[in-house]
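B., you asked whether I could sanity-check this one before it goes into the benchmark set. Here's the sequence:
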Amino acid sequence: MRAIISTALLLTLMPAFAAQPGAVPEPAPAVNAARIRAADHEPGNWMSTGRTYDEQRYSPLDKINDKNVGKLGLAWSYKLPIDRTTEATPIVVDGVMYTTSAFSVVYAFDARNGKLKWTYDPEVPKIKAREGCCGPANRGVAVWNGKVYVGAYDGRLIALDAATGKPVWTTDTVVDHDRAYTITGAPRIVKGKVIIGNGGAEMGVRGYVSAYDAETGKQVWRFFTVPGAPDAGPDDQWTKLARPTWFGDQYWVQGGGGTAWDSMAYDPELDLLYIGTGNGSMWNRKLRSEGKGDNLFLSSILAVRPDTGEYVWHYQTTPGDTWDYTATQHIILADLKIGGKVRKVLMQAPKNAFFYVLDRKTGELLSAEKYAPSTWATHVDMKTGRPVESADGDWTNGAKVVMPSPLGAHNWHPMSFNPKTGLVYIPAQESAALYAPDDNAKYLFKAMFNVGTQPFELPTATDQLKAAADSFKGRLVAWDPVAAKPVWTQEYVTIWNGGTLSTAGNLVFQGSADGRVIAYAADTGKKLWESPANTGVVAAPMTYMVDGEQYVTFMAGWGGAFPLVLGGIAQNAKVQSDARVLTYKLGGKDTLPPPKPRPVLPPAPGPVKADAATLAKGRYLYNGLCAVCHGSEAIGGGVIPDLRYLTPEKHQIFNGILAGAFAQRGMASFMDLLKPEDVEAVHQYLMQRAHDLHRDIETSAKAGG
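And here's what the prediction gave me:
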């Protein structure tokens, strides 16, 4: 597990909540209400990633309901060709389903039967797979005015003809190709503009959000979420606001982070676009900003004008973040009666374990209570809007186990809101991490995981690591945002369970990490239906209606940060990635093939010839370059091959593999980064880990395990 060092929160220049002086500017003239609310008038379609601008992921369809959901069966499925993380929420417009798979490949299906109409492969270079933190994921498309828009993993924004899948225009959104920028999020269409952010904070990039003309692809505006180099030119208004909260001369060398890689929502009445931003680069605040400052706009919710990108207000959930507590998690807009008054609110459950309810016009904090255990902060001060940090989260003077881990109490998996029950359904989780500093870390190069941390020595930290591993628990939490407390919960075998969908049929749908798709009663949490998916399900489901028949679709496919990096814990899910589109209806009769088998352990490799120093070097290089795909300490989680299972033939061609022999499978060459002696050090380390695995199995067998 990677780890970081935090510093005590020092006096900073700005409070967690800060709005521009004076009244909030009046919104622009109202846009066409019929077009804005089209999704509400066409409940059979699912027209954007969150169904509506408010991102509630609630459907008014109720043909499938709590009385008959037990009769759901598989209507059709489609095997996706790339068995990597599958994270998209499909779009359905007029009987056609548009969705994506890994490496940003786009598909159009007949939504009635799953017949493929067309596919578009943007041919993302496979070398890009090594340049992202969590695999070549894609969370879906936007559809508007006869076009389908996709953000490709390599940073291109592409418009396709919705009827044919042929490209209409392509725009490169990347500001610096010497940095590891990626796109994994779904674009949003607001007032004729395509809005997209980017990812890559851990790899050393500077975050920004851009808007492009939906017809031409021409850039309209760009909002940088953190300051750049001081000599890069005059600051705009929001950079002037942020720069005094950063210190030292390293943050802009390291990129700064603050990437807006997922959540957005839009209020057409206030004409405000809401954007969630991510963690810092480096994570280690001591290295990033001399241990000082709020570091705006890291881990923040921003409100901007969609026409111009003009800043209106912000709320920072984790000032000076040192734990990777992003605020890129799903944002939901709703009108709630609070204190006897109907308030226009924004809701978010970011990684840091507090559920926030804000006034979405002004950014005023209305409530912030824990929806999951945390040790980094005791509570949020309602007068200042700032978290009150705990000594248990401050590990300046030594490594500590802290909750939540960098995976968060809620990650990217979308939550949903049901206006009938008044509840928000959160894919929540418990996980702790052993944080430890690497005070000498520096930004090294493009493909390196640059966070200012060190892998912890297993022999000297067994108890702490076991405490962290045992903390991993997954659950579905039905949260009352007015009372600020849970109403019911459902437990899972591990974390990293799928996003949620709620419907007018009093249902909540969710997929699980251990390979199931499930329906619960939205009011009570009673489990009403489940079916095997044969792989982990992390994406959020959606529902639609065609020719009077209601369907529910899950994108199934195991992957993402948890099984890639923490394979030793993710193995508890006992699944292999097997990417498919799964669509259900009442009385469906289709079936799935058997689950993919687990890999067979080959014979132990030859003897390890490296000395202790070489093995330590190999471990360092492996955890910096390889662990983000193949697992920390070379333990795989069911997505990418576990390198302890290399066959004798693979050991013989190991150098060739790192030179690009399997590039077309996604295993890019690393020879531009590694010297021959580095490759040999990594190889020797992996051979040692294979011997460790054989020894552990033999010990367990002798003990009767």
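One thing to flag: The first helix runs from residue 33 to 36. Otherwise nothing jumped out at me.
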